[in-house]
Design a protein that fits this description.
It contains three helices and no strands. The chain is mostly helical and 77 residues long.
């Protein structure tokens, strides 16, 4: 019969769950991967540039991909 030990620091208001060791180890590995993954932190200048771009799009000041490709083809000839 398995033995379960509850740490002394756990108070009665905390909820405990029982999972297999394999599941626990997979969870720990997943957590390590998530913590080691680099996250993108934009600078203030980048945030301002994105907002400026959004305002330009809202005003219709943009070119479509097709327009850009046509312009590039014309300039490359």
């Amino acid at each position: 019969m398995p033995i379960i030990t509850i740490p002394r620091g756990v108070n009665q208001n905390e909820k405990l769950i029982a999972i297999s060791r394999k599941t626990y180890e997979e969870f720990l590995e997943w957590q390590r991967k998530i913590k080691s993954a680099r996250t993108f932190k934009s600078t203030t200048a980048e945030k301002k540039a994105v907002e400026r771009g959004r305002r330009e799009i809202a005003r219709g000041e943009y070119v479509t991909l097709e327009e850009l490709q046509r312009e590039l083809e014309i300039n490359n000839k």
